[in-house]
Design goal:
Strand content: 15-25%
Number of strands: 9
Strand order of the largest sheet: 2-4-6-7
Order of helices and strands: EEEEEEHEHHHEE
CATH topology of the largest domain: Leucine-rich repeat, LRR (right-handed beta-alpha superhelix)
Largest sheet: 4 strands, parallel
CATH superfamily of the largest domain: Ribonuclease Inhibitor
Structural class: alpha/beta
Length: 183
Amino acid sequence: MKFEVLHVLNLSNNGFSGKIPSSIGNMKQLESLDLSSNSLTGEIPIELASLSFLSFLNLSFNHLMGMIPTSTQLQSFDVSSFQGNDGLYGPPLTKTPSYGKPGPMPLLASRKDHGIDFKFITGMEFGLIFGLAIIVGPLFFWKQWKVRYWRWVDNVLCSIFPQLYLDYQRHEGKWHVVLRWSR
């Protein structure tokens, strides 16, 4: 398969490893390419520079090395498109290459960059469950709370809808409050 008319390719956050295939250069209609937050290694293929419709590129947070291929296309992207690849150098990056070990592959750092804090979300879930248990629990287990709650609901409904009124009826020797709609 050649995927020659593919416009958008997003393979981010998949744990892919290995080199970026040079056959990506055959996707002449490609407008957006996101390969961020994987474990890709090697150099950026020179064929990427020939994608003239490419308007979005994100190769950040991989283990790419070498010089970014020179073309007006690739140099027009922001530095953030290449960040997290300690071995990359050349425009638009301003730093020189670090030929040591590649930096840690921060999948979590990538998520943090996008503003997702999973500890906060987990805390919110527990808080919601605990809060609902405090409110809903007594309604299920204590009759006095049930009666007060439904009396409050009836009063709120009557104040919102003036057509509603509370009627008292006797049924099987007991008095019951019934919500009625006046015509």
